[in-house]
């Protein structure tokens, strides 16, 4: 183990380093002859050129085969998800008619949500469409598709205009049913979808009288298809409002609202929000 004990001086280290940088005996620069350095540089240059070319090719193929305005792969779930407004925690709407503080949150949430549906707002960003049929549009690129007007006036007693408390003050609350957007989806396959609501496992209690806005709880076909955020940035979802007119007080109800139309699945036991929504309603007095 002689090398262990060898103590090199600083000069010796310098000498060794110099020899490493340029070895006059073997004519090696940093361990390789200039010829080898040229070859290795050429090898690496060629290697990186090929790598870059492959990357560019992959990017090019990807960009030319995908459309920036529609997703290439869509979820196979072809029935829309359904949500409600107001959107309370755990989907539990619970309030005491005599205690305005207990329902003010729902009323504020609805007023806030519906302000995007003010006639003054909608008239600026969308057009009046002919009801009764899908609104197909051609054109390509960002902001190339117009949107159809859905004014909150359509929701009449649930518009928050005549009755700013949406019936919460009198125990006849409104709940808005909203279908999630699916690009290029044609709900109902030509038949207008509608909403129906019922009480789950609550015999002998019943849902009482309910009224839907618009009439018959329909989503007019003219609001479909939705073309996507980039081509159709002004799109606003059509809504159906359901107003519970005579739900019993101080009872807990589990309410299911379904969207009915050909091709819409609303009874999948594993998908609670596919084509339907279940929420809790508890009106105290
Ligand atoms: C929408 O209309 C309501 C009621 O008329 C009003 O209070 C609210 O400020 C309006 N919101 C917008 C954004 O125009
Ligand atoms: C969307 O709304 C803006 C105003 O906010 C309007 O300038 C634009 O033309 C609208 N887009 C379409 C496609 O109508
Ligand atoms: C819907 O459009 C089709 C063809 O585009 C037409 O034949 C049909 O009459 C329209 N239906 C309504 C209710 O306007
Ligand atoms: C809507 O509200 C008005 C005024 O409160 C009332 O007269 C009318 O009966 C209501 N309509 C329904 C269907 O509840
Ligand atoms: C939609 O309706 C047309 C006929 O109107 C039918 O040929 C087609 O199979 C239907 N599509 C679906 C998904 O139900
Ligand atoms: C609502 O449904 C009834 C019965 O199906 C029908 O007579 C009425 O015309 C419908 N109203 C609208 C606005 O579609
Ligand atoms: C709701 O839609 C279903 C399925 O399309 C239909 O059978 C039913 O008559 C509709 N109800 C109303 C009130 O329009
Ligand atoms: C609702 O509020 C009133 C007044 O504060 C109270 O007397 C009543 O007990 C409350 N009801 C329930 C079910 O908590």
CATH homologous superfamily annotation of the largest domain: Na, k-atpase alpha subunit
User: What is the helix content?
Assistant: 10-25%
Q: Which outline best applies?
A: elongated
Task: Name the poorly predicted regions.
Answer: none
CATH architecture classification name of the largest domain? Sandwich
- Rounded to the nearest angstrom, the distance between the terminal CA atoms is 95 Å
- The CATH topology of the largest domain is given as Immunoglobulin-like
- Gyration radius from CA atoms, angstroms: 34 Å
* Secondary-structure-derived class: alpha+beta
* Relative strand content: 15-25%
- Mean pLDDT across residues: 92
The helix/strand order is: HHEEHEEHHEEEEEE
Ligands (ions, cofactors included): 2-acetamido-2-deoxy-beta-D-glucopyranose
Main sheet attributes: strand count, strand direction, barrel closure? 4 strands, antiparallel
What is the level 1 CATH name of the largest domain? Mainly Beta
- The tally of beta strands, per DSSP, is 10
Sheet with most strands: strand arrangement = 3-5-8-7
How many domains make up the coordinates?
2
Number of helices: 5
């Amino acid at each position: 183990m002689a090398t262990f004990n060898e103590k090199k001086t600083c000069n010796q280290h310098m000498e060794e380093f110099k020899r490493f940088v340029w070895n006059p005996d073997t004519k090696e620069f940093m361990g390789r002859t200039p010829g080898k350095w040229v070859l290795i540089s050429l090898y690496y240059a060629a290697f990186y050129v090929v790598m870059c070319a492959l990357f560019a090719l992959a990017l090019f193929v990807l960009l030319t085969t995908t459309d920036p305005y529609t997703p290439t792969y869509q979820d196979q779930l072809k029935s829309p998800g359904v949500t409600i407004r107001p959107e309370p925690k755990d989907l539990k709407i619970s309030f005491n008619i005599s205690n305005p503080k207990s329902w003010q949150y729902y009323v504020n949430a609805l007023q806030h949500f519906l302000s995007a549906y003010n006639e003054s707002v909608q008239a600026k960003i969308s057009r009046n469409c002919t009801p009764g049929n899908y609104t197909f549009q051609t054109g390509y690129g960002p902001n190339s598709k117009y949107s159809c007007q859905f004014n909150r006036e359509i929701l009449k007693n649930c518009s928050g205009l005549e009755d700013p408390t949406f019936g919460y003050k009198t125990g006849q609350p409104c709940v808005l049913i909203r279908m999630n957007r699916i690009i290029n989806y044609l709900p109902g396959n030509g038949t207008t979808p509608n909403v129906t609501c019922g009480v789950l496992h609550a015999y002998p209690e019943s849902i009482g009288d309910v009224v839907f806005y618009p009439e018959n709880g329909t989503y007019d076909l003219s609001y479909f298809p939705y073309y996507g955020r980039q081509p159709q940035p002004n799109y606003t979802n059509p809504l159906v409002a359901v107003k519970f007119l005579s739900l019993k007080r101080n009872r807990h109800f589990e309410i299911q609202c379904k969207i009915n139309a050909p091709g819409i699945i609303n009874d999948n036991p594993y998908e609670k929000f596919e084509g339907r929504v279940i929420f809790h309603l508890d009106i105290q007095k």
